[in-house]
Input
Amino acid sequence: MGTRTRTSVLAAVLLGAAVTTAACGNDGSTVKAAAADPETLAQPDAGWGERPWLLRFSTAGGPEGETVQAVYVRFTPDTGATTVRSLPALDNRDTYADSQALLVSADQQYALLDSRVTAADRAAGRVTVFPIDGDGSVRLDVRSWSGSPDLKPVGVAFDPVDGALLRVVDARQQVWKVDVTARTAVRDGNLPQHPGWIFANGFDKNTGLPFIESLDTPDTLPAGNGDDDVRPVERRGGVLRPTDPNDVAGQPALPCGFAGGFTLTDGAAWLFCADTPKISAYRWTPGADAWEQVGVASKAVVPRTAEELPVVLPPVGTD
Output
């Protein structure tokens, strides 16, 4: 489990990661704003401070820190505005570290508690998701939608790109695409089955595709998803960046000790400091001598028992 102390290895990998994304095309328009700043227009994240980012805090409770609660905060840097959604606490989770990004839908409307389906939901043939805006939960009747009367979901994760699309693996290792909005479930193949290999509710953090893993070695199928996977989490226009409290090579000293962030493909970086009850946003441009604070701090919303800020997602519509 991650703590308020980050590993410098992860930070260095995230800083140096190259992420392949599609370049934004020019629509050929000759109309330009009269007061447009060419330098600002060249920034792919221009205007990101005006819109809400989504941050996931993970808290720890219980005698041995085994009880985890996810707290999602929408934070608009320019104004400091926030909304907060706390999910039910969970014991003995299966989803850690980078994989927690798959617990949020690509449209940032829904969240999962874990990649492991609860025993009650498994028996009922359903999956439960939680709206990030508002209270309560939504039960998805995957069994009924699929037309498979004995379907028992065991693992679930969101697709990192496609709206509110889930992938569900059932007890027979059949894979289903489940659309939360359309209320549909469509078969999407089967996981391979080999002696000595299991599906342990693992999903590729960058594709959302399920994988199986060996009982005897660190190997996975598809390969590259094991404990030694150091790939950064790729999302729209960059990579998620859990941030070490120490200096990061190529960047100035960080303005805080507990933070999460997002690094764009052009090297620019956003940082969200949370070592006080209030969130503060910073931006760094390659070559700059220091981090520049963006906007104003939030009100006091950082959970008192927050141990990590593993997920920082840029505003929706910033692809």
Observations:
- Residues 8-16 form the longest helix (9 residues).
- The radius of gyration is 20 Å.
- DSSP finds four helices and 21 strands in the chain.
